[in-house]
UniProtKB/TrEMBL annotation:
This protein's UniProt keywords: Isomerase
UDP-N-acetylglucosamine 2-epimerase domain span: 24-366
Highest classification ranks of the organism: Bacteria, Bacillati, Bacillota, Clostridia, Peptostreptococcales
Name of the protein in question: UDP-N-acetylglucosamine 2-epimerase (non-hydrolyzing)
Homology family: Belongs to the UDP-N-acetylglucosamine 2-epimerase family.
């Protein structure tokens, strides 16, 4: 059999983290020829992940431009990927998750009648505007995909309800666990201001907050709740790697500055960030991926959103949804900081997102698809 020519398309740091183990899996198998196309929807943050996992893209669309709209991104990715697909003889295109790169890349493959594999398929919040535009990117990609690689059985059920054929759905776990386990080290040493944090004697609370739907009053509520936590619990140390967006930085600085036990730091590369999760006591986040990663390291997660497209994490009790109201966020986080019994329930819950072998399963399923 000729080698299966697989093109992986991704453009943001989260996509790169989750696709990197899969790219490495293809590279070590003689049945595959791996072709990597990045859109650079994120530029610097993407490049650090490529360097970490030693991945050299064959194609780089380099579309990032300050202030560009979702429409701008869609147009650039659609045209750029189509131009590549007209010159490359590709057997299958793989996209990941729910970004604009994902949807536009899948659409370009569809227009060229190339099979599409959707990694991390079947997640649903059932609110088309939250997360925005990710929820609809993911749903539309499901309509275009040939093969659906669902992290959990719940994700598979979502796809079945939308009339996706069961024979085309494969439950694989989430590749983010593959990536996470490859970089976390218990003896990891930070090379920045985190090296001065007393991880042994302080309960470190890691905060991430960037979602578009949280801009404005919700974000103010979140930071006010964090401020109350820091003032009420002198034994915690809050670390917030601030998103580069000036809207977020301004609100965070106005509310959280001058608090002795709050560190506002620059964004971290993936390796130090993953190890920071491992060394933290509790995670407060509006991110999707961290809801999968942190439980893999036994870290409870408080979700700073009103809903999540990862309900299996809620069911497994590895995460709690706190919403976007100050009092509720404070109460839930404060209980986990001070009630050891409640904390241990979450810390010991089994992560529903896999065992670190998802990339192998996905490669196996693609191989079987072409052998048939």
């Amino acid at each position: 059999m000729n080698k299966i020519r697989v093109m992986t398309i991704f453009g943001t740091r989260p996509e790169a983290i989750k696709m990197a183990p899969l790219v490495k899996e293809f590279e070590k198998r003689q049945e595959f020829e791996s072709i990597v196309c990045v859109t650079a929807q994120h530029r610097q943050m993407l490049d650090t992940v490529l360097d970490l996992f030693d991945i050299t893209p064959k194609y780089d669309l380099n579309i990032m431009k300050h202030g560009q709209s979702i429409t701008d991104i869609t147009n650039k990715v659609l045209k750029g990927v189509e131009d590549i697909l007209k010159t490359e003889n590709v057997d299958i295109v793989l996209v990941h998750g729910d970004t604009t790169t994902t949807f536009a890349g899948a659409l370009a493959a569809f227009y060229n009648k190339i099979p599409i594999g959707h990694v991390e398929a079947g997640l649903r919040s059932d609110n088309m505007y939250s997360p925005y535009p990710e929820e609809m990117n993911r749903r539309l990609t499901s309509k275009l995909a040939t093969l659906h690689f669902a992290p959990t059985n719940g994700n598979k059920e979502n796809l079945l309800r939308e009339n996706v054929e069961e024979k085309n759905i494969f439950v694989t776990g989430n590749t983010v666990i593959d990536a996470l386990l490859s970089v976390v080290k218990n003896d990891y040493k930070f090379s920045n201001e985190l090296d001065n944090i007393d991880f042994e004697n302080k309960k470190v609370v890691l905060l991430t907050c960037h979602r578009r739907e949280n801009w404005g009053r919700p974000m103010e509520n979140i930071f006010k709740a964090v401020k109350r936590l820091a003032i009420s619990n002198k034994d915690i140390q809050v670390i917030f790697p601030m998103h580069m967006n000036p809207v977020i930085r301004e609100v965070a600085t106005n509310i959280l500055k001058d608090l002795e036990n709050v560190n506002l730091i620059e964004p971290l590369d993936y390796e130090p960030f993953a190890n920071l999760i491992n060394k933290s006591y509790l995670i407060l986040t509006d991110s999707g991926g961290i809801q999968e990663e942190a439980p893999g390291l036994g870290k409870p997660v408080v979700v700073l959103r009103t809903e999540t497209e990862r309900p299996e994490a809620v069911k497994a009790k590895t995460v709690k949804i706190a919403g976007i109201e100050e009092d509720n966020i404070f109460q839930i986080a404060n209980e986990l900081i001070n009630d050891k019994k409640e904390y241990e329930k979450m810390a010991r819950a089994i992560n529903p997102y896999g065992d670190g072998k998802s990339s192998k399963r996905i490669a196996d399923h693609i191989l079987q698809f072409f052998q048939k």
